[in-house]
Specification:
There is one protein chain. By secondary structure, the protein is mainly α. Among the domains are: about 40 residues; about 35 residues. It has five helices and no strands. The chain is flat. The N and C termini lie far apart (about 90 Å). About 0% of the residues are buried.
């Protein structure tokens, strides 16, 4: 059995410098030497055991270091900026006022305020708000009935009656109504 080397050396070339030829000859000799076998131990066991240990250590050590840093790291002081309140606290420069734009803005603000007051006092809005209140009261009872019929307070969901026959479904709904105090 031959020993596998993890050295990455280019194949021997007669053109290269003498040092590279020497390294490639040494690599070839290392690859050609057989492994020394120990009595009672299979030849592949030491290699696989040592590689698995090195892999485990290669993963475990960085992982342990990361966990240590995450769990036991102290917060870092902000240093020079720790007392600085930020750019938002600094007032900006005073811009020149343009009379035309200020007057136009005031007119628009008055116009919008008038439109808002007119809309708030309109009969259409009052009618819609009243309908909304009535619908809310009416629909609230329907939603409560629907919720109680589904039996959600007993842990029964919407899909609880899918596998039932029509007779079983009616019996189930009747039981839920009876428990809820309905019909």
């Amino acid at each position: 059995m031959l020993c596998s080397s993890t050295l990455a050396v280019s194949p021997p070339s007669p053109v290269g410098p003498p040092a590279s030829r020497k390294v490639s000859r040494i690599t070839a000799m290392v690859r050609a030497q057989p492994l020394q076998e120990q009595p009672g131990v299979p030849p592949s066991a030491p290699t696989s055991l040592s590689t698995s240990r090195s892999r485990v250590l290669g993963v475990a050590i960085p992982l342990a270091a990361s966990v240590c840093l995450l769990l036991w790291s102290n917060p870092v002081d902000a240093g020079i900026l720790s007392g600085f309140s930020g750019l938002e606290s600094v007032p900006g420069p005073q811009l020149p006022r343009i009379n035309f734009l200020e007057e136009w803005n005031e007119k628009n603000q008055k116009k919008y305020a008038e439109f808002d007051s007119r809309f708030k006092s309109s009969s259409v809005l009052k009618e819609l708000l009243e309908k909304s209140k009535l619908n809310k009261e009416r629909n609230q009872r329907e939603l409560q009935d629907k919720y109680c019929l589904r039996g959600a307070e007993w842990g029964v969901g919407d899909c609880s009656t899918q596998g039932m026959t029509q007779e079983e479904r009616d019996e189930f709904v009747a039981t839920l109504k009876k428990r809820a105090g309905g019909d």
